[in-house]
Write a structure and sequence with these properties.
alpha/beta; ten-stranded mixed sheet; binds iron/sulfur cluster; single chain; globular
């Protein structure tokens, strides 16, 4: 078999499109750019159902398996497409997210969501569960004081209650037993000494993704290599589904859509971005042509199985 053919066959998996539906968040993590009620959040596409519908139709048709329009179609062999709804905090707009998830499913997309969990009530979890293949929850600590210092609380001082979260996850799993749970933890200067084993065991995710804080917004909670390695070591060998993700993996080539419905890509190593025109206005093909996505970086990412999940 030719090497090119082998390479082509090895790149056969789910194509993941991250739509950051909002920049707003009810938390204020010190290492994050998202903040509640930015003025521009009122212009976000999630408040415009006609535009949202057009975006979903465009994206589902353009990236459909076997689509000849998609420029990497010749080098990839994907069998499904998953829309990952991210933020900010997407569940600030829980009813819109429910509607988006339902329409995306109708259009043939898989759907996942990444949330801080604070607004995930058992009722909302039940409503979402039938549409989701993967639910991601970001949790950095089991300790209230640590969460408060990181900024993981809303303006009224409320934090995620583990009991409520556990009940919501149980409700979601009852509706959709095949739902996979992923927990994301950002290791930073305030949680790097913590043992999160009891919390992770209690929530029983299929995957626990451990990331090192990216010193883009601030360096004040940065951790050294030794601190990060110690955190990973402390949680290794206990049967936890821990996966370490490197910063370089995070900033490379996902297909990303911003809250205004534009494709965007990293333009430089300092965190700058390049944006297309809005997909609902010009269509997915014309917008994607403006991203100048590097095909080699992109395909390298998709040939590395674990980084896309
Ligand atoms: S919960 Fe997530 S989006 Fe919100 S401030 Fe924290 S890191 Fe940012």
């Amino acid at each position: 078999m030719l090497q090119a053919e082998k390479d082509r066959q090895s790149i056969s998996r789910e194509l993941v499109i991250n739509w950051h539906v909002t920049e707003a968040c009810n938390y204020a993590c010190r290492y994050c750019y998202a903040k509640w009620d930015k003025p521009e959040s009122r212009r976000e596409l999630i408040h415009d159902w006609a535009g949202t519908t057009r975006l979903l139709q465009e994206v589902s048709a353009y990236f459909a398996p076997g689509s000849a329009a998609y420029p990497f179609a010749g080098a990839m062999d994907w069998t499904s497409v998953r829309l990952n709804l991210a933020g900010g905090e997407p569940l600030l707009y829980g009813q819109q997210v429910l509607r988006i998830a339902a329409l995306a499913r109708e259009l043939g997309l898989g759907v996942s969501i990444i949330t801080n969990g604070s607004l995930l009530t058992p009722v909302l979890a039940e409503g979402l569960a039938e549409h989701l293949s993967l639910l991601g929850v970001s949790l950095d600590s089991a300790n209230r004081s640590t969460n408060r210092q990181i900024g993981r609380l809303d303006r009224r001082g409320r934090q995620v209650a583990p009991d409520t979260l556990e009940a919501s996850l149980a409700a979601a799993r009852r509706i959709n037993p095949g739902l996979r749970l992923k927990i994301n933890t950002v290791v930073n200067a305030l949680n790097s000494d913590e043992d999160m084993t009891p919390l992770i065991r209690r929530l029983a995710p299929e995957k626990w993704k451990v990331l090192r804080m990216l010193p883009i917004v601030t360096t004040d909670l940065a951790v050294s290599d030794a601190q990060f390695c110690a955190f990973v070591q402390r949680h290794s060998g206990h049967g936890l589904p821990l996966r370490v993700e490197d910063n370089a993996d995070m900033t490379e080539s996902y297909i990303m859509i911003d809250p205004l419905g534009r494709f965007f890509q990293n333009a430089d190593a300092r965190g700058g971005y390049r944006y297309s025109l809005p997909i609902p206005r010009v269509g997915a093909g014309a917008a994607f042509a403006q991203t100048e996505l590097s095909s080699s970086r992109y395909l390298a990412r998709y040939s590395s199985a674990e980084t896309v999940r």
